[in-house]
Design goal:
480 residues, Pdz3 Domain, 3 domains, seven-stranded antiparallel β-sheet, seven-stranded mixed β-sheet, 11 helices
């Protein structure tokens, strides 16, 4: 829509020029056909000089071979009738030339479309810009003085448009499945780790629960104990989490009521409060605490391949008091054991040097981390017996074992991630470090000193009545 200062337009005839030129000197009370902006442009040039704006005076309209110049017979109604006939005959391409002031001209290439938002019983039509389908204009009858006044108020109208401008939102499709498969280090599984602490039942008052500060303190103690025992984790965040439950009897009567705004001041530090729903049912809101944590160096993938003749995997697993599964012992005399070939033994020795536990976070991409603490104070975690059985079944079926372990520094994490990338997308020519065995193995570390003689220790496992946990056992039938 170029702006010019000429009264001619293309091959316009002399009579048309004369008509257009004479229209500039009409009386201010003369009714003219004017532009009405119906919907603004989505582009930044909406208020530029070459865009049609409210108050512009229409000088000429061309639809196919039909050319009309100002003054237009019957004004807006006459033009609407022409637009209706053109739309009906599928001649929708239109070109409009306008005048702004006395010597500025602009033009619009558009198509004729129905105005669904129009008022009145008769069908109305508007023009939609070819360059920007979001930009639409219509025609109205105004006096020339009103048009000139609107043109002069352009700056104030821009300010008004700015004040009235609204930001629109909507929904866009997103390829979740593809992103979760391709971008996550472990497909369809997040790297966010957390544990939920439910408020502890009071030991002194029946049907009551300890306050929120007690739950926060237990979460803090758990995390500190993890770090003190050698679990390589760091604190990320902590939050309260509301859980709805039905309460009745003594629990309902002893619960702080949240039935009105005046009761809110009593809820600051309580772990359980209640309210009554529309049906008279007592609803309790439990304020649990979720603690978010992360391994210091991330998670390192380890693939243990099984071959004919492997009678043992070469390592034993146990569980910490805080619920983490970890490697407790290795067979360091057998250099051909699956744990040695995969590099798991080397990781164990290096973790021991760093005074860290080698925590197993996933088996076959499934998280095996503690995830909840009950109101009785028991930590819900995985049973070492069932995990040992699963690992043994891998050995019997000769299927590879995919493990993930917590890294205690960035160097271990970088090494594991590099091996994972090599495994999934091996380059044509790659010079591996001399210590790296294969693309599917974690590189060997210098083992240094031999593993000391392990001791046998049997501890009751709270995960089940008939389940036990073994720490550093050395009997042959206890190894996976």
């Amino acid at each position: 829509m170029p702006m010019d200062r000429s009264s001619s337009w293309g091959s316009q005839s002399g009579s048309e020029n004369s008509s257009s030129g004479s229209s500039r000197f009409r009386s201010g009370n003369t009714v003219v056909l004017s532009v009405e902006c119906l919907k603004g442009s989505s582009k930044a040039e909406e208020w530029a000089g070459d865009m049609l704006q409210t108050g512009d005076i229409v000088e000429e309209i061309r639809i196919g071979n039909l050319s009309m110049t100002s003054p237009f017979k019957n004004g807006k109604n006459g033009v609407q009738k022409i637009l209706h006939n053109s739309f009906k005959s599928k001649e929708t391409s239109i070109r409009v030339r306008i005048r702004r002031g006395s010597d500025e001209f602009a033009e619009l290439m558009a198509c004729i479309v129905p105005n669904t938002g129009g008022t009145g019983g008769r069908k109305q039509y508007m023009l939609r810009s070819i360059d920007d389908p979001n930009y639409t204009v219509g025609f109205v009858d105004r006096t020339e003085a009103d048009c000139l006044a609107l043109q002069a108020s352009r700056n104030s109208r821009m300010v008004s448009a700015l004040a009235a401008a609204k930001l629109h939102d909507g929904y866009v499709a997103y390829p979740w499945h593809k992103k979760m498969q391709e971008l996550l280090s472990i497909p369809n599984s997040s790297c966010f780790l957390s544990i939920l602490f439910l408020p502890k039942a009071s030991e002194t008052v029946a049907y009551r629960y300890n306050d929120l500060e007690d739950t926060l303190s237990r979460a803090n103690a758990w995390h500190t104990a993890c770090q003190a025992s050698g679990v390589p984790v760091v604190f990320m965040n902590i939050q309260t989490e509301s859980l709805l439950t039905k309460i009745s009897g003594e629990t309902a009567s002893s619960t702080v009521n949240a039935g009105s705004l005046s009761d809110l001041m009593n809820l600051a530090n309580v772990s359980l409060y209640g309210f009554e729903d529309y049906h008279g049912v007592d609803i309790g809101v439990v304020r649990a605490v979720r603690l978010w944590y992360a391994p210091i160096g991330g998670e390192v993938p380890v693939e243990i391949k099984i071959k004919e003749g492997d009678e043992k995997l070469g390592f034993a697993i146990g569980r910490t008091a805080e619920g983490f599964i970890h490697v407790t012992s290795i067979i360091d005399q057998d250099e051909d054991s699956p744990s040695t070939r995969s590099g798991l033994s080397s990781l164990y020795m290096e973790a021991k040097k760093a005074r860290k536990k080698l925590i197993i976070s996933r088996i076959s991409n499934q998280k095996v981390l503690p995830w909840m603490v009950s109101p009785e104070g028991a930590i819900r975690c995985y049973d070492t017996v069932s995990l040992s059985q699963k690992l043994s079944l891998h050995r019997h079926t000769k299927l590879p074992i995919s493990l993930h372990v917590f890294a205690w520094d960035q160097e271990v994490a970088m090494l594991g991630n590099a091996n994972l990338r090599t495994q999934t997308n091996p380059p044509a020519a790659l010079h591996l470090p001399p210590d790296t065995q294969t693309a599917n193995q974690v590189a060997q570390f210098d083992t240094g000193s031999l593993n000391p003689e392990p001791e046998l220790r049997l501890v009751r496992d709270t995960a089940g009545e008939d389940s036990f946990r073994f720490h550093n056992f050395s009997l042959p039938n206890n190894w996976v």
